[in-house]
TrEMBL record:
It comes from Magallana gigas (Pacific oyster). This is GTP-binding protein Di-Ras2. Residues 1-22 are annotated as: Disordered. GO terms for molecular function: GTP binding; GTPase activity. SMART domains: RAB, RAS, RHO.
Length: 232
């Protein structure tokens, strides 16, 4: 497929750290400057077998769109501004490939990720099976998952030809000690909830999709003055 070799960056103000690797070797000082570790980034990684709807879920969440066509992904990164501990923070969503051709990329995404969305399609038992090695790899790399938000997601729940029951999904999630939701990127069912719940699972920071930043002193002063103004 023509889109098979695509590697793009989308979303407003999106930056893909991999793109920095293309800087010529003699420009190493520049490379260090363009890829600082952004401590206020919150990195969510979306995993799952090919065609389960990872890109569709992410695009539905980030852009509010849905396409019936299927273009396989290699890796895309999207960025959104959110609130973290009442400060502005960047939610970085990595939409990974469903093909198993890039294990090194998968390991890198796991080690850099703060939270994980493990997606299968409710129309394919095989896609649920394919999540198991990914989950094991996350456990291997991250160790204890108690402090790491993980969400098991059964997508395409608008489809009638179901191959995995809701109960089976919930039971697997229970055995993995993670949260579970069924979603539909097509009908926009539970998509925002998925990201909201994932952020709420983060116990080390207070995360919210809504921007609730602390007001600066000058903002507070302006608001106070506004309240005292009388239209003559
Ligand atoms: N009915 C239905 N179809 C969906 C849904 N989500 C995605 N699809 C369709 O499933 C196909 C694959 O969707 P993608 O989002 O590209 O799947 P993916 O998991 O990103 O696939 P890879 O990038 O190859 O790993 C597309 O034709 C989508 O239109 C959904 O919720 N319901
Ligand atoms: Mg994709």
């Amino acid at each position: 497929m023509s889109g098979g070799s695509r590697m793009s960056i989308r979303g407003s103000a999106s930056v893909n750290s991999r793109s920095a690797l293309t800087v010529p070797p003699k420009d190493r000082s520049v490379r260090l400057r363009v890829m600082p570790e952004q401590s206020n980034d919150y990195r969510v990684v979306v995993f799952g077998a090919a065609g389960v709807g990872k890109s569709s879920l992410v695009l539905r969440f980030v852009k509010g769109t849905f396409k019936e066509s299927y273009i396989p992904t290699i890796e895309d990164t999207y960025r959104q501004v959110i609130s973290c501990n009442k400060q502005v923070c960047t939610l970085q969503i990595t939409d990974t490939t469903g093909s198993h051709q890039f294990p090194a990329m998968q390991r890198l995404s796991i080690s850099k990720g703060h939270a994980f969305i493990l997606t299968y399609s409710i129309t394919s038992r095989q896609s649920l099976e394919e999540l198991k090695p990914i989950y094991n790899e996350i456990v291997l790399i991250k160790g204890d998952l108690r402090d790491i938000p993980v969400m098991l997601v059964g997508n395409k729940c608008d489809e009638e030809c179901r191959d995995v029951t809701q109960r089976e999904g919930a039971e697997l999630a229970k055995s993995w000690n993670c949260a579970f939701l069924e979603t539909s990127a097509k009908t926009n069912y539970n998509v925002k909830e998925l990201f909201q719940e994932l952020l709420q699972l983060e116990k080390r920071r207070t995360m919210s999709l809504q921007l609730e930043t602390k007001k600066t002193k000058s903002q507070k002063r302006k608001e106070k003055l506004k309240g005292k103004c009388v239209v003559m």
